[in-house]
Amino acid sequence: MSNEQHTIKTPAHRNVEDERFDEEARDLTRSLPASRKVYIEGSRPDIQVPMREITLTDTPTGGFGLENGEKNPPFYVYDTSGVYTDPSVDIDLTKGLPKLREKWIEERGDTEVLDGLSSNYGQERARDIKTANIRFAHIDKPRRAKAGKNVTQMHYARQGIITPEMEYIAIRETQKQHELTDMRQHAGESFGANTPKIITPEFVRDEVAAGRAIIPNNINHPESEPMIIGRNFLVKINANIGNSALGSSIDEEVSKMTWATRWGADTIMDLSTGKNIHETREWIIRNSPVPIGTVPIYQALEKVDGVAEDLTWEIFRDTLIEQAEQGVDYFTIHAGVLLRYVPLTAKRLTGIVSRGGSIMAQWCLAHHKESFLYTHFEDICEIMKQYDVAFSLGDGLRPGCLQDANDEAQFGELKTLGELTQVAWKHDVQVMIEGPGHVAMNRIKENMDLQLEMCSEAPFYTLGPLTTDIAPGYDHITSAIGAAMIGWFGTAMLCYVTPKEHLGLPNKKDVKDGIITYKIAAHAADLAKGHPGAQARDNALSKARFEFRWDDQFNLALDPDTAREYHDETLPKDAHKSAHFCSMCGPKFCSMKITQNVREYAAGLPTGVEVTPSSGELSDEVHLIKEVDTELVGQVGEASFEEVQKGMEQMSEKYNSEGRQLYKEV
Amino acid sequence: MSNEQHTIKTPAHRNVEDERFDEEARDLTRSLPASRKVYIEGSRPDIQVPMREITLTDTPTGGFGLENGEKNPPFYVYDTSGVYTDPSVDIDLTKGLPKLREKWIEERGDTEVLDGLSSNYGQERARDIKTANIRFAHIDKPRRAKAGKNVTQMHYARQGIITPEMEYIAIRETQKQHELTDMRQHAGESFGANTPKIITPEFVRDEVAAGRAIIPNNINHPESEPMIIGRNFLVKINANIGNSALGSSIDEEVSKMTWATRWGADTIMDLSTGKNIHETREWIIRNSPVPIGTVPIYQALEKVDGVAEDLTWEIFRDTLIEQAEQGVDYFTIHAGVLLRYVPLTAKRLTGIVSRGGSIMAQWCLAHHKESFLYTHFEDICEIMKQYDVAFSLGDGLRPGCLQDANDEAQFGELKTLGELTQVAWKHDVQVMIEGPGHVAMNRIKENMDLQLEMCSEAPFYTLGPLTTDIAPGYDHITSAIGAAMIGWFGTAMLCYVTPKEHLGLPNKKDVKDGIITYKIAAHAADLAKGHPGAQARDNALSKARFEFRWDDQFNLALDPDTAREYHDETLPKDAHKSAHFCSMCGPKFCSMKITQNVREYAAGLPTGVEVTPSSGELSDEVHLIKEVDTELVGQVGEASFEEVQKGMEQMSEKYNSEGRQLYKEV
């Protein structure tokens, strides 16, 4: 299974050599080691929620004290990779993914299929023979809400309707919690987040209705597997891709998208700014199992040859419709960049660093008016609700360095984003709020607290933040520190940063490094929040580590390939993967072996004694006992120090009589 | 200068091909780009404190609004690389580094040079012909305190004596603060740490006398450049090196040490466990500009063929003297692993993971007694004070996974380490305390708070902590998150973790990745604490970024080579390094250019207006004003919204009349 392949049909126009592409295709579709795609059926047969099942080996028998042949049940992990990792599905990039949501959308009877694209630009491109050879071949007619209808998940939620998407998400977020065998987990500090152990469809509906969570899934992107972004759900991550004026082809972007979702990207933003943006986007959406976000102003700017002040509402509006009908699931819209905030950035060290923010600032200065994003905000809502495109209200005035963090321009814009959230909610349009940026650790929480307050708990979606400016080349790390912290404080989705941030365009390795780094930040946040069951994977991997089940340790890791490769650099032989020693210490001495002796020893002590605190020694340390983890205090027995002494002496004799053997034969 | 080379003589026994070694030697001694080694003289000519001077280019003239030809003064950074980056010094690894502290030690007149090594093992090895070919050729006779004398820096400090080492450190920690031109920095949250803007020798003396900081410098390691570890100084990092039973040669370890200090390691721990530990250590110490730490129990264990229960106080004592006379600056000693704590680890998921801790646990169980490290602790202090070796009291019961964090075994041991700290201080022996390990973010602060309380503010020295267990292969990142946070809370030194942690032995790349990642964590902590001047480097780099001074941006980075390399992947041409656009956006559009337009615009507004808040809009938002950064509120003018409107209209006309040019010619 773990090496099973399946064919992958590729775009005719691909500009890469077959061999490289075929190898890449294998990379993109190979099952992860010891992993199998499984689906959990919901209340109806067409609700099939994917998960990755990781098969674990049994605990070894013989040899060491605790090696008892115990069966270790398979472990299930949240899976964003779509059917690319399902060997039973043949991938045809030229046709796109199966449309799993199509039936649900039709059933609701509130949408209609249009005769054709309704944006001028979309029609223009469809007629353009120059792009025919790179165009996606099977473009469906777009779907739109019937006149007067509102097709957003928020609208349904507020009507009390539980959609199949909501049920799908409930199953997905629950992650087979109830089947976990190792439920050990420490209490977290959630800062007001509140996640039930089992996520019900009703809980999902209620969170969406309240605006605390969004389900980005445009009715024109039926290929997407429903997912949710909200403080009371698993912390999500986004990966940015997109070609630029400096190159990168459609193939590369589609492959980056697939690569990113393989490693755990929950959503993808297509930030293309080069040529053929429209065609590139079509290819990405048709083949993407996760929601796609864009920044429409980027494309609008291309349409006016990069002259910001030439932008108009009409051009922007047509761009929104063009992209909504392709199936973009959320739009970053910098409607909070108001004329009065622009001069507040003048004394900054790095001014305005958001592209969208500076485009709008430029427009505001030139026309000396509030931007059309702000003045036409309700018109934008009218478009969004006909396709169920969610807002990602952009932080156009986010700080570009530590010095500019948390300033008036940034917080002034945030307040306006909070006001616009209320307007969007009036239309039942889903909203999340974008956040910084570059912020020192001690000033991160202020961002989260203000966002929750000003934006009425709409989901926060932050870029990092970077906690120092001095490490270009390592900004995936400078930002992961801030991302983990703000995720803990309540951010719902973390936008990844790659090692190339500030320096260049990320390649495939950079994308993977960014993804894994952000999966770490998101999971560290889930753990600190006390998200139910979050620690189960840590426990399973640690148990495998302790029992020298090397392969299980690799297979449970966020990146099994790298873990295995690093291990093999030091201990190449397969035999070593079942070796009872760590590659650090070598065969002669290993602390874990000794720990097993300690366990045998303690196991022989009088019942209840093994975790006795050092009696008189500690009992007078009120402050210590007070500090000690309650779960552990719960296990403390009542034996006296004398009893412990006695038990220990017995064990000492037994231990010595058995020849004080440090290493027993396997 | 930046490519200047100097010769480097190499060990005769080296087991690598000349070519590779010579290339490596160049790697190890090449000056960093645009950097020059400078020395600041203290109150006497033989106090010469090294710093790295980074030359910056001028702000460009013409073209953009704020490009005014401004001179950007050179930037000075703390430099741990020793004379390896000083082209005026020829390196001879076979002779070792210059002994810069020798005269200071002699002057004090409280030490004597012995006739020879006083440890049995040291003498044995000196006589061993089998190791003659790999032995360091110029071993000096060891130095020891005269009978009844105490030669620790803490002892001097408590006598009110300011040593040259203390003055050296005061200059080094001050980092030319008073010469900084950009003093902009946000207030930090120090959690009780208290660092003056200018560090005086008296402040250093007082911190050492109080035990809040240590100066690890054995009188037998006069080559080391004095440095300090304490909560009220810059956060430091340690890099572990050392060969193991699985290989790695002396050359490789010496080169790893040099490589680690080149990138910023403040101390090095030699954790060698393989053969020739003694000889390897000699080579490392003689050539190390930073303090060297060891875990003597590792070597003691080798002496009893890995059978922990065969360890004796006599063997351990001889090992301490052997290593003290070689010049080891601090010893990790796991004296807190008491018999009564061992059973507390039995119910753990991963038991005891510290090698030293498990060795001692094994010994305790076998003998059913408290360990000789505990029962002979005062004897150990007597040895330490004759050479000025500092204690690093080991956390032998640190958690090996999140589940085991903050438990009774860990905190019980911590309490004992606090008691031992008092004993060591009674002898004026310097002490730092080792800490975990694996801890979820929400449980990190408890570790710091308890350590400060139980150990009377002795410096804390932590490994990470790792904030999740699920990313083997990326544990430099899982741990950097925890390291940055605990550094912020008050940890004085962070022990690095490499990507190979749990998997294998780090190679040169892993060492560098670990170092840079930990420099990031330490600096992020300094920033969050509000360490005086910490933000200056961030500001200088951000200013260079904003002004498109690409080379300055690279040269100010923690890793200039990688930053430049990543940039060149996208924009290879040198021309691009002076290009007025970022590699992300390309030549057509750049947000920073627009920001410059905004500045020109704001600059033309009526005085005091440019940073006016949006008057009525914000003034009723008491909570916002309340939250806003005080530095910035300080700049807010009083102009009314009408005045702003008027000013803006004028500017709008001016802007348009000038042809609304987005890009002016350079």
Q: Would you give an account of this structure?
A:
The structure is a homodimer of 666-residue chains. An eight-stranded parallel β-barrel of chain A has the order 10-11-12-13-14-15-16-17, surrounded by six helices. The first copy, chain A, has 25 helices and 17 strands. The longest helix of chain A has 22 residues, at 508-529. Chain A has 666 residues and is of the alpha/beta class. In chain A, helix 7 (250-263) runs parallel beside helix 8 and helix 9 crosses helix 10 (313-326). Chain A is globular, with a radius of gyration of 27 Å. Chains A and B meet through helix 11, helix 14, helix 15, helix 16 and helix 17 of A and helix 11, helix 14, helix 15, helix 16 and helix 17 of B.
Uncertain spans of chain A: 1-7, 12-17, 581-588, 607-645, 659-666
Fraction in helix of chain A: 40-55%
What shape does the CA trace of chain A take?
Answer: globular
Which chain pair shows the most residues in contact? A-B, 166 and 166 residues
Q: Give the amount of beta strand of chain A, in percent.
A: 5-15%
Indicate the mean pLDDT of chain A.
85
User: What distance lies between the first and last C-alpha atoms of chain A, to the nearest angstrom?
Assistant: 30 Å
Structural class of chain A: alpha/beta
Strand order of the largest sheet of chain A: 10-11-12-13-14-15-16-17
Give the number of DSSP strands of chain A.
17
Note the main sheet of chain A.
8 strands, parallel, barrel
Count of helix runs of chain A: 25
Oligomer: homodimer
Q: Radius of gyration of chain A from the CA trace? A: 27 Å
